[in-house]
Structures are given as structure tokens and as C-alpha cells.
Design a protein that fits this description.
With 420 residues, the chain is mainly alpha-helical. It has 2 domains: 133 residues; 246 residues, Vanadium-containing Chloroperoxidase, domain 2, CATH 1.10.606. It contains 14 helices and 2 strands; from the N terminus they run H-H-H-H-H-H-H-H-H-H-H-H-E-E-H-H. Strands 1-2 form a two-stranded antiparallel sheet. Helix 2 packs antiparallel against helix 9, helix 10 runs antiparallel to helix 12 and helix 12 packs antiparallel against helix 13. It is elongated, with a radius of gyration of 23 Å. The N and C termini lie far apart (48 Å). It binds 2-acetamido-2-deoxy-beta-D-glucopyranose (3 copies). The site of one 2-acetamido-2-deoxy-beta-D-glucopyranose (NAG) has 3 residues, from loops. InterPro entries: PAP2/HPO, PAP2/HPO_sf, V-haloperoxidase. This is Phosphatidic acid phosphatase type 2/haloperoxidase.
């Protein structure tokens, strides 16, 4: 009699407790806020993807280890995995209060007492998962110093942009060990950009000069909004896109959700590394440097120089043009989302609606609805040209690179996800 009452009580707890939302997405979303809260107000592109991949690796590991347990056990385990990995990454950024607050807020919603026997086991499962990933990632190369020397001030050669840092961002990120055992990242490297004395280069230069300038009268209002809409960290916006696409399909399926977001963020992190490999190999100059260049250099021989030209998005980021990492991230994310979408590029009606979360130049929050993943990735890519910070070829090749890297990441994932 005693035993069956106890069993009933336990069963009742199981049924009534558990966080009703998608616990993995809760942490994906909180992570975007943590990145924003760092002392510099964000991270450089590859580290921002690297960070989210580390958190999601730990979350997936915790989900795998607790997959036979109750829903709230799984939720508590992945929450501690996310918490500890976020703090491992941001330990030096004094983010303890913010990360602790996110965990403190979700524990009552999960409902499993962390001090109960099962609760303690769940906490430990999450903490162990975070430690395993941190240990494996401690020597992945992201913290290694790699110095940089600018090349000669000749057509096509990358230089510091006005308002940018004196040294370009994290050159060492091109050598970071990829996720899911991807191995040599250079095999994905895009061909060199078109020669600066080609007709194509001149056409693209004139296009970004006209469409991407701060005071452009040629750019449409829609395209100006496109530049602002996609301005946010790609990792944040594509994870939000993913969350809007999957909706509440994963609320009781922690393992499936953890796998999906690990795949997405591994692919994004690998895309960031591949993009950096291309940037620091090809060292292409930015549109602003090309347009400010004092002597004629385009194929027709005419003088296109305008030393006062200013791009819409300012300052031009502190790293080379080719390829656009924003576009590479978009290519990678769209490939993972397409795989999740049964291989289809088309999004079921009424499509996926996403809000921007960066308000620049008093433009306000912008909302967009997409019915095709390719369309979203291409618009994301074009946004950097309308912003005046990239050539079109840097975006086109970036999207293609991201897709190649993501497809290979998905192929390797099941066999190698836990090599960290
Ligand atoms: C879950 O249960 C299955 C079937 O009993 C077992 O093979 C597997 O090892 C268990 N997994 C974990 C992580 O406990
Ligand atoms: C932007 O993100 C912050 C932090 O998550 C949130 O408080 C805010 O409501 C978001 N704004 C929009 C428009 O989504
Ligand atoms: C991140 O910071 C920007 C700039 O302060 C802000 O507009 C945006 O809402 C923040 N986003 C999140 C997710 O907190």
C-alpha cells in the first residue's frame, strides 16, 4: 500500500511538472543575450559561433546521457550543461549574474527538486557534459595569438577600414579545430575573387558604390531595411529563425531538439572557420578601401575614386572582404534548416516570421516573413552589399561555402558529434 502511494505520487509529479516550452531553445535564446552582455557588447564572428556550438555540444551530450530519464530530469540536465558551458566561455567577462539568473529562473518551471536524489543526478549529468566539452575544447586554437601584417596599398589588397580596429579580428580563428571531426577546413576554400582589373570587378564596384552608400538615392527603402534587418549577429538571428521554423514541435523531445540545435550550431561554427580561412588567404580589400583608392585602377581606366564615400553600415568590420561571413553563416544555416524541412527549400504557409533585434539609425524593429530558405539566405547575403561593406561576389561565394560546409557537417555529425 505504502509503495503504490509513493508510486502514484511520483507519477503525479512526472505528469504535472516539466517546463512546457522547448528547454533547448530557451538556452539558445538566453545565450544570445549573454553574448550581447559581454564587456565589448558582442563577439567577433567566428568566436560567436564557436561559443554557441560549445554550449549546444554540452546540451546534446547531457540530453544523450539522460534520454532514458523523465522529461524534467532531461530538462534539468541540459540546463546545467548550458549554464556551465556558458560560464566556462564567459568566465572572464563577469557574466556570472546573468547566466545564474537564467538558470535560477528556469528551475522552478522544470519542477524537479535539484536537491532530491534524481535532481542531484540530473545536475551532475549536465555538469559532466559541460566539463567534457570544455576539456576537449581547451586546446582548440581559439586563444592562440596570431599577428597580422598589412600588405602593400595596392588594388585588391586588404587594408584597415576607417573606424575599424588597427588590427583585424581574430586571425587565429582560421586555424580553430572544426566541430564534428570535419578535419582540414581548407578543402572547402573558395576560388580567388575576380581580378581587380576585370570587367566584372568594375561592374560590382560600381554597384556597391551606388547601392551601399549611406546617402544612396538609388537604393530602395526595402533594401535599406534589408541591410538593417540582417545586421544582427548571424548566430542570433539564424537560431531565432530556426526557433520560429520548428515552433513547439520539440517541447517534449529534448533529445531531438538538442540534436537539431547542435547540428545547426556546429555547422555555423564550421562555416565561421571556413570563412575566416578564405578571408585570411585571399585578403581582399573592402569596398570602402577600393572606392577611396586615390589612383585609377578599374578595367575601363576611368577614375571612380571618392574619398568621402561612406557605407550605410558603419564601421566596415575589421576583417577582409572575401568571403562574407554573414553570407557563409546564412548558407550554412539554410542548408541545415532545409535538411530538417524534409529536404525542401519551401517553408509551409504562411512562412516563417522573424523580427530584427537591433535598432540602428532610429529605424526601429523590422519584421520579415520568408517562404523560402534560399530567398532568406540570399537576402541576408545581399544585405551586406546594400550596407556597403561587401562586394556581391563575396556574398555569393559565401553562401555557397556555407552550404558546402554545412552539408559535410551533417554527414559527419552522427559519427563524430562527440569528438568535440
Ligand atoms: C537507455 O536504455 C537503453 C535500453 O534499455 C540502453 O541500451 C541504453 O544504454 C540506455 N542509455 C543510457 C544513456 O542510459
Ligand atoms: C530583443 O531581445 C531582448 C533580449 O532577449 C528582448 O528583451 C527583446 O524583447 C527583443 N526585442 C525584439 C523586438 O524581439
Ligand atoms: C543586443 O544589443 C543590441 C544593441 O544594444 C540591442 O539592440 C539588441 O536588442 C540586443 N539583443 C539581445 C538579444 O539582447
Amino acid at each position: 500500500m505504502k509503495l503504490s502511494l509513493l508510486t502514484l505520487a511520483t507519477a503525479a509529479t512526472v505528469v504535472n511538472a516539466a517546463y512546457p516550452g522547448d528547454i533547448v531553445y530557451y538556452w539558445v535564446d538566453q545565450s544570445a543575450t549573454f553574448v550581447n552582455g559581454t564587456v565589448i557588447g558582442g563577439l567577433q564572428s567566428p568566436p560567436s559561433a564557436w561559443y554557441q556550438a560549445i554550449v549546444q555540444a554540452a546540451v546534446y551530450q547531457a540530453a544523450v546521457k539522460s534520454k532514458n530519464e523523465s522529461l524534467e530530469f532531461q530538462q534539468l540536465a541540459v540546463s546545467h550543461a548550458a549554464h556551465n558551458s556558458a560560464l566556462w566561455v564567459f568566465h572572464g567577462s563577469r557574466l556570472y549574474n546573468a547566466v545564474d539568473a537564467s538558470l535560477r529562473a528556469i528551475i522552478p518551471a522544470i519542477g524537479l527538486d535539484p536537491n532530491s536524489k534524481k535532481g542531484k543526478e540530473a545536475v551532475q549529468t549536465g555538469q559532466k557534459a559541460a566539463a567534457a566539452v570544455a576539456q576537449a575544447r581547451a586546446e582548440d586554437g581559439i586563444t592562440n595569438f596570431l599577428d597580422f601584417t598589412y600588405g602593400p596599398k595596392e588594388p585588391g589588397v586588404y587594408q584597415q577600414s576607417p573606424g575599424a580596429n588597427p588590427f583585424p579580428d581574430t586571425p587565429q580563428a582560421q586555424f580553430v579545430r572544426p566541430f564534428a571531426g570535419l578535419g582540414d577546413i581548407t578543402r572547402f576554400r573558395p576560388p580567388p575573387p575576380p581580378p581587380t582589373d576585370s570587367k566584372q570587378y568594375e561592374e560590382e564596384l560600381l554597384y556597391v558604390k551606388e547601392q551601399g552608400s549611406l546617402d544612396s538615392s538609388a537604393r530602395s527603402e526595402y533594401d535599406t531595411d534589408t541591410a538593417y534587418f540582417w545586421r544582427e549577429s548571424s548566430i542570433t538571428v539564424w537560431n531565432r529563425f530556426a526557433g520560429a521554423l520548428v515552433g513547439d514541435k520539440f517541447t517534449t523531445k529534448v533529445l531531438d531538439s538538442a540534436k537539431f540545435y547542435a547540428q545547426l550550431n556546429y555547422a555555423l561554427a564550421n562555416a565561421g572557420i571556413a570563412s575566416w580561412d578564405s578571408k585570411y588567404t585571399h585578403l581582399g580589400w573592402r569596398p570602402i578601401t577600393a572606392i577611396h583608392h586615390p589612383t585609377p585602377w578599374v578595367s575601363s581606366g576611368r577614375d571612380i575614386s571618392d574619398p568621402s564615400w561612406t557605407p550605410l553600415l558603419r564601421p566596415t568590420p575589421s576583417h577582409p572582404d572575401y568571403v562574407s561571413t554573414h553570407s557563409t553563416f546564412g548558407g550554412a544555416a539554410s542548408a541545415v534548416l532545409q535538411a530538417w524541412n524534409g529536404g525542401s527549400d519551401e517553408l509551409a504557409a504562411p512562412g516563417v516570421t522573424v523580427s530584427s533585434n537591433v535598432t540602428l539609425d532610429a529605424r526601429g524593429v523590422i519584421e520579415r516573413t520568408y517562404t523560402s530558405l534560399r530567398e532568406a539566405a540570399e537576402e541576408n547575403s545581399a544585405s551586406r552589399v546594400f550596407g556597403g561593406i561587401h562586394f556581391t561576389f563575396a556574398g555569393v561565394e559565401g553562401v555557397a561555402l556555407g552550404q558546402r560546409v554545412a552539408k559535410e557537417t551533417l554527414k559527419q555529425f552522427d559519427a563524430n558529434w562527440d569528438k568535440f
